[in-house]
Amino acid sequence: xxxxxxxxxxxxxxxxxxxxxxxxxxxxxxxxxxxxxxxxxxxxxxxxxxxxxxxxxxxxxxxxxxxxxxxxxxxxxxxxxxxxxxxxxxxxxxxxxxxxxxxxxxxxxxxxxxxxxxxxxxxxxxxxxxxxxxxxxxxxxxxxxxxxxxxxxxxxxxxxxxxxxxxxxxxxxxxxxxxxxxxxxxxxxxxxxxxxxxxxxxxxxxxxxxxxxxxxxxxxxxxxxxxxxxxxxxxxxxxxxxxxxxxxxxxxxxxxxxxxxxxxxxxxxxx
Length: 271
Known about the structure:
- The chain is mostly helical.
- The protein contains eight helices and no strands.
- The protein has helices at 13-43, 47-133, 137-143, 149-171, 177-196, 202-222, 228-255, 264-270.
- α1 (13-43) runs antiparallel to α2.
- The model is unreliable at 1-9 and 262-271 (pLDDT under 50).
């Protein structure tokens, strides 16, 4: 395994601790020997004591010099290895590593495209099987791939409820109108998510948190500039756009195609 800047060989921690203790010991011996030398020289002259003090002083100086020297050598070798790695091995490996990273990104992009193609193929197979078993599926295909007639019925029913709630709030605006409007955003999200089984999709949950965060705050901001009925109408217009975009995303995410058979290339070729 090639060493990286984070895994290059350096002086072990135990050796650094040993050098630190050696240097500390040298300093202590140096202080004691100097103190004893002053005492033996000035206070009471003791030739034998002076000789011992000089020996201890020499040992402490040698020990301190040895510790500092070893530490400097370690730092020098580490910097030398680091420089050799940066200028030698890493310089040669950098193009290879960059190529590996680019290949990884390309593989992820290829995997995403293959998953999208797989969903499209599976959708075509499912629609073909439905057509052979039930001629009524042509009506469902005209709506969107993967949808059912029950989804259409639920959508119509929820549309009626949404319009009734809109007209009721326009004629008699309730107090918490922003919460009442938010309920319809969540209902449409639940309908589409249940149809396409998106409750395990993290992006789908982001889609429901967006109106939860923006609708109440938006009402409070617009209430200072617009009448309440105008604000309600504006947010219901956004609800239509939100439901359509979330539905289109759900179809594309699960079936790999766009709803309502939006094949623009066919129309471009015809023109």
